[in-house]
Write the structure tokens for this entry.
Amino acid sequence: MDPDQAYQFIHDELMLDGSSRLNLATFVTTWMDRHAEKLMAETFDKNMIDKDEYPATAAIESRCVNMVADLFNAPGLDPVDPGSATGVSTIGSSEAVMLAGLALKWRWRARGAGSGTPNLVLGSNVQVVWEKFCRYFEVEPRYLPMAHDRYVITPEQVLEASDENTIGAVAILGTTFTGELEPIAEIVAALDKLAAGGGPDIPVHVDAASGGFVVPFLHPDLSWDFRLPRVASINVSGHKYGLTYPGIGFVVWRDKESLPEDLVFRVNYLGGDMPTFTLNFSRPGNQVVGQYYNFLRLGRDGYTAIMEALRDTCLRISGKLREIPELEVITDGSAIPVIAFKLRDGEEFDVFDVSHELRARDWQVPAYTMPDDATDVAVLRIVVREGFSADLGRMLCDAIAESLAALRKGKGGHSEARAFAH
């Protein structure tokens, strides 16, 4: 096939995708400036794992890992030695979670604390990758249920579920369902008390996929990271509020002792002796380059300004939603730029009807049920990302109001579509 024809064929098919900028379902970055795009296009062909052949890209990765570890207050970092941080870049937080979970399991086994099946304590509100980790690596998941008006785990739940076979407890900094911050400092304090009383010494992993590049800038005094000695590891998604195109993530450990040495492999068949701790091997270096561009271009002040702007946009949107009688706002976007809201009781339509109506207006706003034990609560969620302006927020609020008005009149909605189909 002629290359121009092949291009046009695929280009035209992709027109059927929705507009990524109007996709308020995803946390993933959908806009970067042209300089970042140019750098990333220039480095598609560089294999991130081949550090001997691409030493500059490898050095950039080390700097990024060091910056992330410093952002999370890892102890003992040398500011002039990027190699002083213990961590690695990954393909998003999914790979990062797998690596962190493996380190927890290996450390539990080395402690010889228990003789039964290893278990992991985590909320039913975790992202599905945690379920995958437990199934793939034979760890018993101990899911802590949610409740009406409580969509995060509690220290009491963590203590009740923990025993000598617990490899770790997972706390979330910015949940997928509502964007809330779990009470990490309180969970750590409860586990500290448990260990001090002769109970099991259980490390904490913080899943900061969504909040890791937000909370340090919006809530710098909040203790959730390596300032808490029991926090052993943290993962974060660079392709979420790290503001980089997918897929890039990081996992960092408190120190070298937190990452078991026998999990690290060394290979020399790419031209040099290279330590590696990844599930994936070959991957392009352009995502790390894009992340480094953001770190260099924006710095702490730039990230702070962007996160403050996103929060302000969230507060404007949630304020407008509160003025709509049918709606109840659950989270207003002040923790991380995520708004969750639901319909008040007694409406003749549901949130899935509202989502359907919004999609007909080109807006992608997901509707879903909350995790166990609150599955009878259904909500809508808006993720505000860079590139989503206050003006777009105003238009979104108008679209929500119009959708509700149409549903009030009995026009539209997925329920009506189903009835018509039957």
Q: What stands out?
A: Confidence is low (pLDDT under 50) at residues 417-422.
